[in-house]
Design goal:
The chain is mostly helical. The protein has a domain of 130 residues. It is built from 6 helices and no strands. The N terminus is likely disordered.
Length: 194
């Protein structure tokens, strides 16, 4: 038995220096601040119940669920292209087109979520009248905090290679949970003929 290895104690994850840990904590705090700020605004703001823009949809809820569904589809593209870029699917180096597709699909997904989030916060506010709605409200705020953390992490030099994929996975998972607790619920629970 190697006693030196047994006595060395726990080690930091690969690429984690004290400086990197500090930077990562700062990024998470910044993202957390965004999430909390959105939640506080949504809770303290008096919801208007009105839509600003329907983008051709019949109701605010139709607009929200269809834009959220489109965003979820683009997030699926994000997942597949990220898996290709990190060598989890496919063989050989990732073509440049995959990277471009990943970036464009990410921008489109986020842009599609903006009117949805705006109407959630401004028109409906942060709601907690059921577990599903509370979970949805918390996840919606968390989504933008994770997004901010990921975007900031992309700008930091010498960030360990596992950080951005982890944040991307968290972002994808959160968006899917937001979609499941809103759009999918709406599709499966709206009255017939609505």
């Amino acid at each position: 038995m190697d006693t030196h290895a047994a006595d060395s104690g726990p080690t930091a994850p690969e690429g984690m220096t004290p400086r990197t840990i500090g930077v990562l904590i700062g990024l998470v705090v910044a993202g957390g601040a965004v999430s909390v700020a959105l939640g506080v605004y949504g809770r303290e703001h008096s919801p208007t119940g009105r839509a600003i823009a329907l983008f051709g949809f019949a109701t605010m809820f139709d607009m929200k669920v269809w834009l959220a569904t489109a965003a979820a589809c683009f997030a699926g593209v994000q997942l597949v292209t990220a898996l290709r870029m990190y060598g989890r699917i496919g063989h050989g180096p990732s073509p440049h087109a995959v990277t471009i597709t990943h970036r464009v699909s990410g921008v489109v997904a986020i842009v599609l979520t903006l009117p949805v989030a705006y109407h959630c916060l401004w028109s409906l506010g942060f709601q907690a009248y059921s577990r599903r709605v509370l979970f949805h409200s918390v996840l919606g705020c968390a989504f933008y905090g994770i997004f901010v953390t990921k975007m900031l992490a992309l700008k930091v030099r010498r960030m360990p290679g596992w950080v951005v994929p982890l944040l991307g996975g968290a972002l994808f998972t959160t968006l899917m949970l937001v979609w499941l607790t809103s759009a999918l619920w709406y599709f499966t629970h709206r009255p017939p003929g609505y």
